[in-house]
Every structure is written in structure tokens, then in C-alpha cells.
Amino acid sequence: MAKKEKKKPVRTAIVLFSLFLFIGALFLKAVNNGESGKEKFSQTFSKEEIPESLIPIYKEAAEEYEVSWELLAAVHRVETVFSTMDELESPAGAIGHTQFMPCTFIGWGYPGCEDEEKGNLDIPKSTLTDMSVINKYGGYGVDGNGNGRADPYDIEDAVYSTANYLAANGAADGKEKKAIFQYNQADWYVEEVLAYAEEYEKHYVAVKNKEYDLHN
Fold it and tell me: Where is each Transglycosylase SLT domain found (predicted)?
């Protein structure tokens, strides 16, 4: 009597194929969630809306560094959707309300930064926010609220630091496009920031109903 054919290889193949499809679906879901994360938060604000509580900070920093306050608002909008993102740290290592790389904030002369291509060095917060260290190494961090420290997680310090950076890279001389490109060297980024800045210059709406913690 001939032996019956074994079905195990076929069943195993079906199970493996099903598992492959399941893992693939999970992967695609994760990728889509990552890509749509900022879009989800972006829907919190229409393109002309700006949180009312932030406008005085933008204007004060803009006056101090002779840049457009609408430009500061636009950078903040594009970077963290006015700080409404779940996390204020990017996968690349940028931190805070306006997404500074640590070495840019403290200064590229800081020990170890010269070995970091993108500047995402792990620097203790007590050192990162120390104005004497920032001044020593030529960083862009600014004490915007006058408490003696420059903290990228403090909204005033972050906005003033961004104003400082943009001004030093051309915005104070009318070279906004150049300054924005230095902030994030991607053409799409420059276009998006300029689009928001132009929108705010034409017409903006100050909104009161957006509540979030600006001081982590």
C-alpha cells in the first residue's frame, strides 16, 4: 500500500506566507504612522492660525535680532507645529520647541562636537543650558526669559535662539531663504517655511483655544 503524501510542507508554507503578510502589514502601518504623525498635529491649526500667547514672544525676539516675527512663527510651525507634537525630540537628535541640534545650540567648539557630523551629541542639560559654556564655544543658545540659562525646552529661550541663528545666517540682512536653508538644508523645508511666513504676513488669525505646556 502506497504511503499517503505528507501535507506538512504545504501547511508550513501557508503558515509562513500568512506570517509574512502579517509582519508586512504591521511594518506598513508603522511607516504610515511615522509619515503621518506631523500631518496629524498639523491639522490642529489651519494655515493662517497662530497661538495668541506666542505672538508677543515672536515679536520681542524679532525686534531684538532684526528679523521677521512671521518668519519665527513659520519656523516654529514647521518644526513642531507650535510645540504640539507629542515629543520635542526628532529621530535625528534635534531637541526643543524649535528643534536645535545640541552642538549648534551650545557651539561646535564644544568637546566632542567636532566628531559629530550632525551635532546630536549627548550633552548634560546643566552644561547645554549654561550661558558661560555657550558663549565660550560660540553657540546660538540665548537666555530669552532672563533666568540666567538658555534652555531649548523653554519657549522663550528657543524662539530667541532661533532668531539669533537666523539673523546670524543672513535673515537680518534680508537673506531669509539662505538663513532658512542653513537651519535645515532641504529645499522642501525652505519652501514650506517661506509659504507659512508669507501667509502670516498677508493675514493671520490669533487663536486662544489651543492649550499645551510650553515649558517642559
Answer: 136-174
**Grid cell of 69 as nine digits:** 516675527
Q: Per-residue pLDDT tens for 131-186?
A: 999 999 999 999 999 999 999 999 999 999 999 999 999 999 999 999 999 999 99
- How far lies 38's CA from each of 3, 47, 98, 138, 162, in Å? 61, 14, 14, 32, 20
**Phi, psi (rounded to 5 degrees) for 204:** -135, 155
Rounded to 10 degrees, what is the CA torsion of 159, 164, 168, 170?
30
Cα angle: 204, vertex 73, 100; to 5 degrees: 165
Strands 49-51 and 205-207 come out as parallel
3-state SS assignment for residue 55: helix
- The answer to whether the beta carbons of residues 62 and 81 sit under 8 Å apart is no
**Could you tell me the CA-to-CA distances from 65 to 54, 98, 110, 119, 183 in Å, in that order?**
17, 16, 24, 24, 16
CATH of 43-207, one of 1.10.12, 3.40.630, 1.10.530, 2.40.128: 1.10.530
Residue with cell 532641504: 186
Question: Among candidates 98, 100, 121, 118, which has minimal Cα distance to 110?
Answer: 121
Are 106 and 128 a contacting pair, CB within 8 Å?
Answer: yes
Compute the CA torsion angle 151, 58, 74, 160 (nearest 10 deg). -30
Instruction: Please name the helix (run of DSSP H) or strand (run of DSSP E) that holds residue 49, with its range, or none.
Output: strand 49-51
